[in-house]
Amino acid sequence: MSLHGILEVLLIEDASELINFFQANSLHGCLPRGTATLWSLSDTERNSTIDQTVTNRPDLLIKCHLYHYNYGSDHRATYSEWNLRAQRKPTVKVKKAFDRADWDSIAREVLQ
Description:
With about 110 residues, the chain is α+β, with helices and mostly antiparallel strands. It has one domain (about 30-110). Helix content is about 30%, strand content about 15%. A hairpin with a 7-residue loop joins strand 2 (about 40) and strand 3 (about 45-50). The longest helix has 22 residues, at about 5-25. It is rod-shaped. It starts with a helix and ends with a helix. This is Endonuclease/exonuclease/phosphatase domain-containing protein. GO terms for molecular function: catalytic activity. InterPro entries: Endo/exonu/phosph_ase_sf, Endo/exonuclease/phosphatase. It comes from Aspergillus tanneri.
């Protein structure tokens, strides 16, 4: 096994901790699977998905993508747009519990 092969095995072992953390906390990636976020400055063919944007509320994610310009960095910034509007709870119609009323007491008060 080459040194490169050993490094791959070590990286996979380290990634399992991260994967377990994501699963334990119900975290989901926001970018499409396999989206590269890092490009090697010395080898432009080499890239990685090292930068992660995650959420435990994927239902609130409107869109997520990389910025088109890298601003001189080997990492690309992530743009995320979320639906953070306050959720309005429906007005609950008040129900009168006539079956639990003390009708004898009410009748006495009405007659007074």
